[in-house]
Amino acid sequence: MNQLLNGILATVLMVSAAMAQDYDVVILNGRVMDPETNFDAMANVGISSGWIVKITEEAITGKEMIDATGHVIAPGFIDLEQHGLGPWAVKVNLRDGVTTQMDFEVGALNISEWYAARAGKTQANYGTVIGQEFARMRIHDGLELAGPNVSMPYFFDYRVQAAEDGVDGWSVTRSDVDQMNAITKILDEGLRQGAIGVGSTIGYAREGITTYEMFEAQRAAARYGRVTSVHHRFHPSSATPTETQTGVNEILINAMVLKAPLHIHHDNDYGWWENQEKLAMARELGFNVWASYYPWDAGSETLVPPFSDRRTGKARWIINTKKRFTTREMTSFYPGRVSGTARKDPGYTLIAFSPPRKNWMPEWIKLPHFTVSGDGMPGLDAEGNRLDWDAPYEAYSGHPRAAGTHAKVLRLGRELGVPLQHTLAAELLAC
Questions:
Q1: CA-to-CA distance for 101 and 406, rounded, in angstroms?
Q2: Mean pLDDT over residues 103-129, rounded?
Q3: In what order do the strands lie in the sheet with 289-293?
Q4: Residue 350: its pLDDT value, please?
Q5: Ramachandran region of residue 368, left (φ > 0), alpha (ψ -120 to 50) or beta?
Q6: Residues whose CB falls within 8 Å of the CB of residue 102, separated by 6 or more in sequence, listed in order
Q7: What band does 348 get if pLDDT is binned at 50, 70 and 90?
Q8: Residue 400 banded pLDDT, cuts 50, 70, 90
């Protein structure tokens, strides 16, 4: 009997020792925080095959040991509005803590090909939505839009192609019944192939996309139980009757009657306070609806149409690394034509400053369920060339929100006394 017990004990000890050594990476002595479960404790983390498999206060070991004394251990951040998604932009956003980088506004086309081209080649977690704008380009501009790269960072090239006949059909042309059905079919096929939802840039196509076409786009996503993610019709207008809130009302009502998820991009301009109140009330009724912001007092645009005069009342000045524009000059880029500069450089970046945002930022970071998205632009140098993974940081020319958004939110939260668990929830979409 003693021999049997000793054998059993030896086996248990061997299994325990094997389990103790079974981690690829162990992170020790850190403050582990998880907003989803509200976990907050000094603990050790065991990781195997890329998955967190153990969080414990007990001592554990692994092949690689990382001492996190004095640091916080949290899940990697999720960003639903990263437009860069080229190698350089992926690199800098990983350094901003963003381990899941997705473009839910512009999205992509040819979803199966898009995923296949990135499998095993992308250093961050990824996913995409089916882009309403691309579907409209195919129907209203006659663009083939073939292949795996109908997405950012090639998006502006397609806008130039769409405007070559002098008409941005995707932006200004209203669909008849057959065209709307054709567009919806494209959205449905993208969802069938694995798109996480539908992405809409209706704010750049408010003359072309009717309310019913927008409703049908949201209904397509709703059939699969998936999100519609929208740059809404009137962002960022403060003029009645085209106020920001009116654009939010449209898509929020659609989401509620369809009982479907909704994400609203960059709700960080006029009317955000009303939008956030309505979203909070809708969540109390059980609806999965939310919005995101970015903590910058400037936005960005390109010279590629449609550069709508809806901006002129909001921006104090427009700059980039090459030239300064007045708001009057800015309106000359729209409508109906592509400037010579834009033809040569479709990624030419304009920076639009919005001074009121400085006063609003301290409020945004305190609101529960108001999430953070970077709205980062493609990684381009001063000549408009796309930057690769090894390009130096200083080669980038454009809006600073290409990276640093999430670090800035953490800094603002610390300076304003916002609980770290609250800030992490915003970074992780734990809404």
A1: 12
A2: 96
A3: 103-108, 128-131, 197-200, 227-230, 262-264, 289-293, 370-372
A4: 66
A5: beta
A6: 78, 79, 80, 81, 82, 126, 127, 128, 129, 196
A7: low
A8: confident
